[in-house]
Amino acid sequence: MKFEGISPMGEELLRAFRLFRKADWRQKPVAGYKPSEIMALICIGNKADSVSCGMQVSELSRLLRVTSPTVTQLIKGMENDGLVERNMDQSDRRAVRVTLTDKGAAIMEQSLAVFKTSFEGLVDYLGEEDSRKLTELLGRVFSYFQERVFEPAEPEHKGDAE
């Protein structure tokens, strides 16, 4: 595909980015679960107090960057598969909290192991120096698009750092 007026280097960058669109580089399903389910399990499992009281649906929605109705459907399916449990919030009866079951925690741990192996393999493949360069460049690419191309993201709330 040719773009009128784009430099040769701009075309090369565009081709490189398009390779990622064509490749299915997302994590392959673990135990048959979809990437959206895996990401939800990881978000719930990484919440410090999720074991004791769980994560609110609205918070999970914000972390996954999808609407609350979408998360509700996702949670229903995961609940039917025995991965999560929904409970009423003890301090706010209108809110629902989601916790991992033992099965959900096990799938989350499997997924994290696969994810870790993938990135450790990439570091081995590229080497330390190129991995460090790639990390720096990807950070700069992200900053460029956030600052100059896309609308600035909403500032994170204190305590939201993951």
Number of strands: 3
Q: Biggest β-sheet, characterized?
A: 3 strands, antiparallel
- Shape label: elongated
| Number of H/I helices | 6
Backbone structural class: mainly alpha
Order of helices and strands: HHEHHEEHH
**Low-pLDDT regions:** none
Strand order of the largest sheet: 1-3-2
Helix content class: 55-70%
Work out the strand percent: 5-15%
Distance between the termini: 39 Å
Overall pLDDT score: 85
Task: Give a brief outline of the structure.
With 162 residues, the protein is mainly alpha-helical.
What this model shows, in words?
By secondary structure, the chain is mainly alpha-helical. The chain has six helices and three strands. It has a three-stranded antiparallel sheet with strand order 1-3-2. Strand 2 and strand 3 form a beta hairpin. Helix 5 packs across helix 6. The protein is elongated, with a radius of gyration of 19 Å. The termini are far apart.
